[in-house]
Amino acid sequence: MLILETLQVASGLLPVDFATSNAGARTGDFVSLRHYRRLAILLFKDGGTAGEDVTLTIEQAKDAAGTAIKPLLFDTIYRKQGSDLATVNSWTRTRQTAANTYTNTTSAEDELIWVVEIPAESLDSSNGYTHVRGSVNDVGTGAQLGCVLYLLSEPRYAADPEQMMSGIA
C-alpha cells in the first residue's frame, strides 16, 4: 500500500517569516475533514529571538471560506524542540488545560516541530463544522521562518490518491 493511499499532505501556511516586519501574524488556510477521520497540524519553525515566543492557534469553520469561525480546543501537543533539531530524537508530549492555543514559552531561540492531532469527531459537526485551520501569531521583530502543514489520515472512503488530492479543500 502506498502512503498516499492513507495520508494526504496539504499546506496550512507556506514558509514565511512570522516577524512584524514581514506582515506579522499569519492566518492559515482551512482544510476539510469531510473525507478524513484525523488531522495532524504540524508547525515547523527556525530559531528566533529571545522573548519573541510563537503561538499556534487552531480554529474550526463551516467551510473553506471561514464561515462562523470558532475555537477548536485541544489539550495535547507533541514537540521536538532545541537549538539543533538534528540532535532531537524523541517527541515530548505536553498536556495543557483544553484551549485553542499553545505558546512556546521555553525558548523562542529554539528550532521546533509541534504536532497537534485533531480527531474529526472533536469538531462541532452537529452544527455543520467541517473545516480546521492552524494560524501563527506575530512573534515580534526578529526573523522566525516557519510553516504549517496538514497531514490528513484515515480516509473515510477508498479512492485513488489523485482523486483524494482534489477533495482537501
Key attributes of the depicted protein:
single chain; 169 residues; six-stranded antiparallel sheet; five-stranded antiparallel sheet; globular
Describe it for me?
It is a single chain. The chain has 169 residues and is mostly beta strands. The chain has one domain. 3% of the residues lie in helices and 46% in strands. The strands form two sheets. A six-stranded antiparallel sheet has the order 1-11-3-9-6-7. Strand 4 and strand 5 form a beta hairpin. It is globular, with a radius of gyration of 16 Å. The two termini are 24 Å apart.
The average pLDDT value, as a whole number, equals 87
DSSP, total strands: 11
Helical stretch count? Answer: 1
Unreliable sequence segments: none
Structural class: mainly beta
**SSE series:** EEEEEEEEEEEH
What overall form do the CA principal axes indicate?
globular
Strand % is: over 45%
What's the helical proportion of residues?
A: under 10%
**First-last Cα distance:** 24 Å
Largest sheet: 6 strands, antiparallel
Q: Order of strands across the biggest sheet?
A: 1-11-3-9-6-7
Q: What number of structural domains do the residues give?
A: 1
How much is the radius of gyration in Å? 16 Å
Short description:
The chain is mostly beta strands. It contains 1 helix and 11 strands, in the order E-E-E-E-E-E-E-E-E-E-E-H.
What secondary-structure arrangement, pairings included, does this model have?
Blueprint: E1 7-17, E2 31-32, E3 36-45, E4 55-61, E5 70-71, E6 74-82, E7 92-99, E8 101-103, E9 111-119, E10 131-136, E11 145-155, H1 161-165
Antiparallel strand pairs: 1-11, 2-10, 3-9, 3-11, 4-5, 4-8, 4-10, 6-7, 6-9
